[in-house]
Amino acid sequence: MSVEATVVVETFTLCETSSWERVEQTLAAAARMVEAHGDAELVVLDVTGEDEVAHRLGSSFAGARRVAAAGLSYDAAKGIAAQEARGTYIAYLDGDCLPERDDWLERHLEALRAGAVATGGFTRYEGGFRGALESVLDFGFMLPARPRTLACYASNNVAFRRDLVVEVPVPDGPMRCRCFAHSQTLLRRGTPVRYVPEARVRHERQPFVEERLRQGFDEVAALWTDPGLPLRPLLRLGPLALPPLYARAVLRDWQRLAAGRRDLGLSRAGAAVAAVLLPVARLVDAGGMLRALLPGGRTSRFVVTGAPAGR
Question: Structural domains in the chain?
Answer without folding.
Answer: 3-203 (3.90.550.10), 208-303 (no CATH)
